[in-house]
Amino acid sequence: MKFRTRSSAIIGTLCLVTSLALATASADEPADPVQPVTASLTEVARAQGPSAGAAGPGDTLWLAERAGTVRVLDDQGLGAPVLDISDETTTDGERGLLGVAFDKAFEHFYISFTDLEGTSTVDEFAVEDGRLRPDTRRTVLTQTQPYANHNGGDIKFGPDGYLYIAFGDGGSGGDPHGNGQKLDTLLGKLLRIDPSGGEPYAIPADNPFVDDANAKDEIWAYGLRNPWRFSFDAGTGDLLIGDVGQSDWEEVDWAPADSKGGENYGWASMEGTHPFGGTEPANHVPPVHEYDRTGLGCSVTGGFVYRGDALPGLRGSYVFSDYCDGTLRTLQLENGEVTGVGDLGVSGGEVISFVEAGDGELYVLSSNGTVSRVDPA
Predict the structure, then answer these.
(1) Residue 17 has pLDDT above 60, yes or no
(2) No. of H helices and E strands in the chain?
(3) What is the SS3 assignment for 293?
(4) Strand-pair partners of 112
(5) Which residues contact 312 (CB under 8 A, 6 or more apart)?
(6) Beta strands at 362-366 and 219-222: parallel, antiparallel or unpaired
(7) What is the DSSP code string of 35-50?
């Protein structure tokens, strides 16, 4: 899929450089050098506050705009809104239309947003012949948010066909309600549900806490602060989560495709591999990568493992960024171990999100409205 460009390519020399230290809990050796890759960012569209996106039917990208609209990007450019819920949400704090997803057959479209009261809401629409059917809208799941920040809101279908939903710890600072480590709340969690298996949804029988009377059945993983963006590797099925830190450390978490769930990523006892609000839990799963805020970074933006064809040298690398720094960064991973850390030498601006197209190519969404494709130089 190659969308028509609306401006010249912004060329950047992307050098996958040798890391001097791996930011994992146990790594103390330098990363192996990797071969340099050159690439460019090509602006393909401009949107109004793009916040998220998903590959849609017919080689399209469906892009969410935070104020509440969804528009379709195809070879002709960015179309008029196909959905407008702007009168149902607000952009104060970290609220708005925060996530979109299709099921694998493109038969249903899901949106994740905060309503006017700030309640996180996941709604479903039927899709017919590539078109949204507004009359089929139904609410799948809601979660009250005590504060206007750390809403999370990302949604993705996993390789297993279930819908995963990321919620932050509820907001404020330092997790004042202890939601990250509590199992009786959906806040600070990654959820896993079957929206087509029941009304309003069903719980997969193999979810890790279905037999625990003191835990929410929907929980897949916990100990998360604000998992703003997560994804599944299209090649392996592995899960990667960019979890925004409190004040010192940003982290990327990982779980293998054959995980049975139940991972505890540590918040708010831990911030990355560092104690924060207590002692390290015995079952803490440390991040595979972390970085501090002594540089320009302040808020990790999780991305995708690149599985496209345009940049063969980048294939298999996890591409992510930071909202404040904007540099496109990479991790090379083997069986959950980081073997190389690099940056691509190019900035996407205030990177809000990445979108993976159906052909595996990656797009970058920036707060200034640009939608850019990662291309060869």
Answers:
(1) no
(2) 0, 27
(3) coil
(4) 99, 122
(5) none
(6) unpaired
(7) ----EEEEEEEE-SSE
Structure tokens at 246: 């409190």
Element at 165 (helix H, strand E): strand 163-167
What's the CA gap between 51 and 53, in Å, rounded?
7
Residues contacting residue 47 through CB under 8 Å, at least 6 positions apart: 63, 65, 71, 78, 365, 369, 371
Give the C-alpha separation, 265 to 253, whole Å: 7
How many other CB atoms are there within 10 angstroms of residue 172's CB atom?
Answer: 13
- Quick check: 178 pLDDT over 50? yes
How many residues would you count in the chain? 377
Mean pLDDT for 190-206 is: 98
Cα–Cα dist 326/346, whole Å: 8
Phi-psi category of residue 127: left, alpha or beta, with phi > 0 → left and psi -120 to 50 → alpha: beta
What is the Cα–Cα distance from 243 to 232, expressed in whole angstroms? 15
Give the position of tokens 């996993």: 158
Structure tokens at 139: 């609410």
